[in-house]
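Title: Prediction job returns without error message
Component: structure pipeline
Severity: low
Priority: P3
Assignee: unassigned

Description:
Job completed but the reporter wants confirmation the result is attached to the right record. Sequence as submitted:
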Amino acid sequence: MHARALAILVSTFAALFGGCILRQSRQAQTYVLDPLVSAAALSEAPLGFVGVLKVTVPGWIDRPQITGRATTGQVAVDEFARWGEPIGRGIQRVVTENLAALLPDRRVVAAPFAPSQTIDQRLDLSITEVARQVDGSVLVEARWAVLGPRGETLVQRRSSHRVSPAAAGPAGTVAGASEGLAELSRDIAGALRALPAPAREEKAIDRP
């Protein structure tokens, strides 16, 4: 009788201990956003410099874990899928690289800018949504503005792009977000192309 009870006790501890090992052995996967616009040859004489300011994102998205929408206003948090960099910084990096490829006649740089750099136009980008939705799509929405050298607003718009990723899970969410940011970058690039070229001050030439 004692032997049977001891065997049951050992089996119970083994099951519990084995479950703990399995839970501890599962490690979080790390993801980063990717630029999806093909690079183009840069112009040797750029029309101007475009600066991408620090990107703002909602607090429920600005966290290490990849988040998404759930039913009735709930947020789904995946503890085993994490961003490899702060999401705002990743969006700034990707949009900068996309714009550099879409606008080969400009130089596109990300803030913070060097004191010696002359930035002709600044992109002020605020992301309001970049997450998988209940229906499985990934929604990228943003408010953005192009500012002139004195801080004046040259363009102010909203963009919304919904992507249906082929893959499920966090890999599909990240791929869909990258694709949505590529479409957003195309919106911004189109607006920048439509603006007049930045005025350049001509240096005085000393004549004898």
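Comment from assignee: result matches the submitted record. The chain has one domain: 48-194.
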